[in-house]
Amino acid sequence: MRVAVVGGHGKTGRAVASALIRRGVDVVTTGRAEWDDLATALGGCDAAYVIAPNLHPDEASYVAHVVAAARSAG
């Protein structure tokens, strides 16, 4: 299984990615650098674990962007 950890470069994201790797999961971490082409970064993933930034002023929009990218990635 291949899982994307969106927000995977932060403290929580690194912990989640490490835990998944210990369980034998192939992990793709994404961060700000991948944001503009998130669909490409999510390509080939079976699932995504989404970690919105703490106190993000528009968390709903952040999550909607990730969902749209995941749908686009298939």
Give a brief description.
This protein has 74 residues and is α/β, with parallel strands linked by helices. Helices cover 43% and strands 19% of the residues.
The averaged pLDDT comes out at: 94
CATH architecture: 3-Layer(aba) Sandwich
Q: What is the chain-wise order of helices and strands? A: EHEHEH
What is the CATH H-level superfamily?
NAD(P)-binding Rossmann-like Domain
Q: Give the tally of β-strands.
A: 3
Q: Report how far apart the termini are.
A: 15 Å
Low-confidence stretches: none
Which topology does CATH recognise?
A: Rossmann fold
List the helices and strands and how they pair.
Layout: E1 2-6, H1 11-22, E2 26-30, H2 38-42, E3 47-50, H3 59-73
Parallel strand pairs: 1-2, 1-3
Q: What would your notes on this structure say?
A:
The chain has a single domain (2-73), classed as Rossmann fold. The protein has a 3-stranded parallel beta sheet, with helices on both faces. Helices cover 43% and strands 19% of the residues. The protein has 3 helices and 3 strands, in the order E-H-E-H-E-H. The radius of gyration is 12 Å and the shape is globular. The chain is of the alpha/beta class.
What labels would you give this structure?
74 residues; Rossmann fold; alpha/beta
